[in-house]
């Protein structure tokens, strides 16, 4: 009996560890099933039926592997089929590469390019559309020159369309002559595509940097699209303002030669700006509000990036640009109109 008890105890421990291992492996198989089905749905060729068939085959392989895992004996054929399928799926995923050669939506049809000579920056393909509705517009792409010695302000624009936690982040640079140019990190949609947060995890969109007049990019959101747009003046040293401007230009130029995929978490309108600013002003703490970009005003207020001499609620009320009527041809007039 004295010998049997340790043996039985060791047997129970072994069976317990095997059970825990099977649970963990089952969870991993389930996670790979979910990831694989979504990856195939968003990226597999063959239209809806082809995507559905590929996802169904992968789900069947994962289910077979999970069932085989809990049967007595080894994994047998189902387990090996799953492992081979996983290797093939991962290999196929690595072949998916971003491209600048697609049929793009009109508002991201051209890529921003910038050249720097001394303090003068020349931007090609600055967007200056006349928007009548979200689908009715006159497209204009223009070349602009900006003197960084005349750069005097940076404003953060937040455009809310899906509740208080989610907003699109744009940055507007102001010059002493009253001109402004807005940089926006966006998905580069193909014609007919719509934004999808889930698709942004699965290489559905390329990344783009858009430079635009405020009368274009802020108006279309506050007007035709009916979004709630707020414009916050940001406290930033002159050197940091210049370097942030040039960071946008460098990022845009890099995308011309080396396209990248947009990613909902790691490469979006807010996280890229955070990386740029953190490279200029090191030490900015990571915070959940960087991902939940609707709360960026609270984050910047806590870091002293906004005017802390007045309550944040007062700043928020001042920042709202409200619903805007169609702007005229004068971009300076629109920029004055949306500021208190």
TrEMBL record:
Instruction: Give the protein's recorded name.
Output: Lnb N-terminal periplasmic domain-containing protein
* Keyword Transmembrane attributed: yes
Protein keywords: Membrane, Transmembrane, Transmembrane helix
**What domain of life?**
Bacteria
For this protein's source organism, the top of the classification is: Bacteria, Pseudomonadati, Pseudomonadota, Betaproteobacteria, Burkholderiales
State the Pfam families in the record: Lnb_N
User: Which InterPro entries does the record cross-reference, listed alphabetically?
Assistant: Lnb_N
State which residue ranges cross the membrane.
20-42, 48-70, 77-93
| Boundaries of every Lnb N-terminal periplasmic domain copy | 137-293
């Amino acid at each position: 009996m004295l010998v049997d008890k340790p043996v039985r105890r060791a047997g129970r421990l072994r069976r317990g560890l095997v059970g825990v291992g099977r649970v963990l492996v089952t969870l991993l198989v389930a996670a790979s099933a979910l990831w694989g089905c979504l990856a195939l749905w968003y990226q597999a060729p063959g239209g809806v039926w082809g995507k559905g068939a590929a996802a169904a085959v992968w789900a069947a392989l994962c289910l077979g592997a999970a069932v085989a895992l809990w049967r007595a004996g080894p994994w047998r054929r189902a387990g090996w089929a799953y492992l081979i399928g996983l290797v093939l799926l991962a290999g196929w995923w690595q072949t998916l590469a971003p491209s600048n050669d697609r049929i793009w939506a009109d508002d991201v049809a051209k890529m921003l390019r910038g050249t720097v000579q001394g303090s003068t920056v020349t931007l090609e393909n600055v967007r200056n559309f006349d928007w009548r509705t979200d689908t009715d517009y006159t497209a204009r792409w223009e070349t602009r020159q900006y003197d960084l010695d005349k750069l005097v302000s940076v404003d953060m624009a937040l455009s809310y369309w899906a509740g208080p936690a989610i907003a699109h982040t744009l940055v507007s640079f102001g010059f002493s002559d009253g001109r402004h140019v807005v940089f926006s990190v966006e998905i580069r949609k193909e014609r007919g595509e719509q934004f999808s947060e889930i698709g942004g995890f699965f290489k559905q969109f390329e990344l783009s940097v858009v430079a635009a007049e405020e009368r274009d990019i802020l108006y279309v959101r506050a007007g035709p699209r009916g979004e709630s747009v707020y414009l916050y003046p940001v406290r930033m040293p002159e050197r940091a303002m210049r370097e942030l401007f040039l960071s946008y230009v460098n990022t845009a130029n890099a995308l011309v030669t080396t396209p990248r995929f947009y990613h909902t978490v790691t490469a979006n309108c807010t996280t890229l700006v955070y990386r740029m600013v953190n490279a200029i002003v090191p030490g900015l703490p990571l915070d959940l509000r960087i991902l939940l970009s609707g709360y960026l005003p609270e984050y910047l207020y806590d870091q002293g990036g906004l005017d802390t001499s007045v309550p944040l609620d007062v700043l928020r009320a001042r920042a709202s640009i409200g619903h805007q009527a169609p702007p005229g041809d004068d971009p300076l007039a629109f920029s004055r109109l949306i500021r208190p």
